[in-house]
Amino acid sequence: MQLTLEFGGGLELLCDSKKIHDVNIELQNGEDKLTMKDLLSWVRTNLIKERPEMFMKGDTVRPGVLVLVNDCDWELSGQLDTSLEEKDVVVFISTLHGG
Amino acid sequence: MEGEGERERKRGGRVCCVCNEARASVKRPKTLQHMCRECFFHAFESEIHHLILNNSLFSPGERVAIGASGGKDSTVLAYVLSKLNRLHNYGLHLFLLSVDEGITGYRDDSLQTVHRNHLQYQLPLQVVSYKDLYGWTMDQIVDVIGFKNNCTFCGVFRRQALDRGAALLKVDKLVTGHNADDIAETVLLNLLRGDVARLSRCTSITTGEDGIYSPNAYRGFAREFIKDLERIRPRAILDIIKSGENFRISTTTKMPEQGTCQRCGYISSQKWCKACVLLDGLNRGLPKLGIGRSRGSVGSENGNGSKVEKSIQGKQCGTLDF
Ligand SMILES: [Zn+2]
Ligand SMILES: [Zn+2]
């Protein structure tokens, strides 16, 4: 599944200082959908190069990290249960640094 | 982006509870309302407008400097204030005030953002440098005192810089932007103050960028706590601020009397303000003069380095204004 992932507010520093990542995620054995929960663990394994604790806490994002799925706060779409579709845009912004 | 509307329909995104038309983009922590982008902006801006009116914050014709750091808080402030000034004819002469510490490379990004704010919101920009304010750039100070001890200078100079810049430019008012998370954190830290001072002495605070440029490094713990609370109860942050406000009002303790520095006129409870003490030391070639004074001896040049450094940083960290 093709997705565009964007990291901001300092999170880009955890993944090679690159803000925008166009990624292609292979769905696991026969599954035809991908949830945010799946995406987070994929990101943690494949994109985050250092200090993963700045990005995640437990199985979700660290409190203070804003998540937008297609410009919409993921709180409105079910957070970890949000199901993603082809060409979705997911943005992660840390609000913890720099007023 | 093409097909986005269609995709959202398919997904059945929620509708804004204010206009009942547009797709909701945020769940506002303050009210838990689902709102679209436009309705959120409108609510936010009109709340600030009423806050300004109710507290009579400004009078027509005033020169108002907006403290601009390039960060999100000051960017939002610059945007909202310039918009409201235009929309409601406040009659304010607004401009952006930015401080350049004179640390090579350090401000490049943020000054760039400030420059963008200047173009985007059509606000005049004034940059004052540490050289203008203190006669020394931060790089020059580091050259004299070394990299590790400049935390004290950083904290003291930065805290005064905007005020001094505003005075230099003869403004009537200086406004600075802060977010609810930061204020709630400060309230909590103020409540914990006694314990925190002890904590900072016995806990080693790592040196490096974080220790030097954000002296309140241990703030992170309070921040994490606040964000955890927010997850359980989104209004918690505003409630903490509220309790801080009440705390302040109900206090019966006599506040220490504020005098002014005999040298520069800045508010100070001592004869000279902290910055003037530090500057005096720098100018006389005794840069460690003001450091750790209230904490007893600082130790010689490099002896006992890490301990001194720790106590300096601990001291810095006990200062809870922002
Ligand atoms: Zn709306
Ligand atoms: Zn002074």
UniProtKB/TrEMBL annotation, chain A:
<feature type="modified residue" description="1-thioglycine">
    <location>
        <position position="99"/>
    </location>
</feature>
<keyword id="KW-1017">Isopeptide bond</keyword>
<keyword id="KW-0963">Cytoplasm</keyword>
<protein>
    <recommendedName>
        <fullName>Ubiquitin-related modifier 1 homolog</fullName>
    </recommendedName>
</protein>
<dbReference type="GO" id="GO:0002098">
    <property type="term" value="P:tRNA wobble uridine modification"/>
</dbReference>
<comment type="similarity">
    <text>Belongs to the URM1 family.</text>
</comment>
<feature type="cross-link" description="Glycyl lysine isopeptide (Gly-Lys) (interchain with K-? in acceptor proteins)">
    <location>
        <position position="99"/>
    </location>
</feature>
<dbReference type="GO" id="GO:0034227">
    <property type="term" value="P:tRNA thio-modification"/>
</dbReference>
<comment type="pathway">
    <text>tRNA modification; 5-methoxycarbonylmethyl-2-thiouridine-tRNA biosynthesis.</text>
</comment>
<dbReference type="GO" id="GO:0032447">
    <property type="term" value="P:protein urmylation"/>
</dbReference>
<keyword id="KW-0833">Ubl conjugation pathway</keyword>
<comment type="function">
    <text>Acts as a sulfur carrier required for 2-thiolation of mcm(5)S(2)U at tRNA wobble positions of cytosolic tRNA(Lys), tRNA(Glu) and tRNA(Gln). Serves as sulfur donor in tRNA 2-thiolation reaction by being thiocarboxylated (-COSH) at its C-terminus by MOCS3. The sulfur is then transferred to tRNA to form 2-thiolation of mcm(5)S(2)U. Also acts as a ubiquitin-like protein (UBL) that is covalently conjugated via an isopeptide bond to lysine residues of target proteins.</text>
</comment>
<dbReference type="InterPro" id="IPR015221">
    <property type="entry name" value="Urm1"/>
</dbReference>
<dbReference type="InterPro" id="IPR012675">
    <property type="entry name" value="Beta-grasp_dom_sf"/>
</dbReference>
<dbReference type="GO" id="GO:0005829">
    <property type="term" value="C:cytosol"/>
</dbReference>
<dbReference type="InterPro" id="IPR016155">
    <property type="entry name" value="Mopterin_synth/thiamin_S_b"/>
</dbReference>
<dbReference type="Pfam" id="PF09138">
    <property type="entry name" value="Urm1"/>
</dbReference>
<keyword id="KW-0819">tRNA processing</keyword>
Automatic annotation (TrEMBL), chain B:
<dbReference type="InterPro" id="IPR056369">
    <property type="entry name" value="CTU1-like_ATP-bd"/>
</dbReference>
<dbReference type="GO" id="GO:0016740">
    <property type="term" value="F:transferase activity"/>
</dbReference>
<dbReference type="InterPro" id="IPR011063">
    <property type="entry name" value="TilS/TtcA_N"/>
</dbReference>
<dbReference type="Pfam" id="PF01171">
    <property type="entry name" value="ATP_bind_3"/>
</dbReference>
<dbReference type="InterPro" id="IPR014729">
    <property type="entry name" value="Rossmann-like_a/b/a_fold"/>
</dbReference>
<protein>
    <recommendedName>
        <fullName>Cytoplasmic tRNA adenylyltransferase 1</fullName>
    </recommendedName>
</protein>
<feature type="binding site">
    <location>
        <position position="177"/>
    </location>
    <ligand>
        <name>ATP</name>
    </ligand>
</feature>
<dbReference type="Pfam" id="PF16503">
    <property type="entry name" value="zn-ribbon_14"/>
</dbReference>
<keyword id="KW-0808">Transferase</keyword>
<dbReference type="InterPro" id="IPR032442">
    <property type="entry name" value="CTU1_C"/>
</dbReference>
<feature type="region of interest" description="Disordered">
    <location>
        <begin position="294"/>
        <end position="322"/>
    </location>
</feature>
<feature type="binding site">
    <location>
        <begin position="67"/>
        <end position="69"/>
    </location>
    <ligand>
        <name>ATP</name>
    </ligand>
</feature>
<feature type="domain" description="Cytoplasmic tRNA 2-thiolation protein 1 C-terminal">
    <location>
        <begin position="259"/>
        <end position="289"/>
    </location>
</feature>
<keyword id="KW-0067">ATP-binding</keyword>
<dbReference type="GO" id="GO:0002143">
    <property type="term" value="P:tRNA wobble position uridine thiolation"/>
</dbReference>
<feature type="binding site">
    <location>
        <position position="182"/>
    </location>
    <ligand>
        <name>ATP</name>
    </ligand>
</feature>
<feature type="domain" description="tRNA(Ile)-lysidine/2-thiocytidine synthase N-terminal">
    <location>
        <begin position="64"/>
        <end position="200"/>
    </location>
</feature>
<feature type="binding site">
    <location>
        <position position="99"/>
    </location>
    <ligand>
        <name>ATP</name>
    </ligand>
</feature>
<feature type="binding site">
    <location>
        <position position="73"/>
    </location>
    <ligand>
        <name>ATP</name>
    </ligand>
</feature>
<dbReference type="InterPro" id="IPR035107">
    <property type="entry name" value="tRNA_thiolation_TtcA_Ctu1"/>
</dbReference>
<dbReference type="GO" id="GO:0000049">
    <property type="term" value="F:tRNA binding"/>
</dbReference>
<keyword id="KW-0547">Nucleotide-binding</keyword>
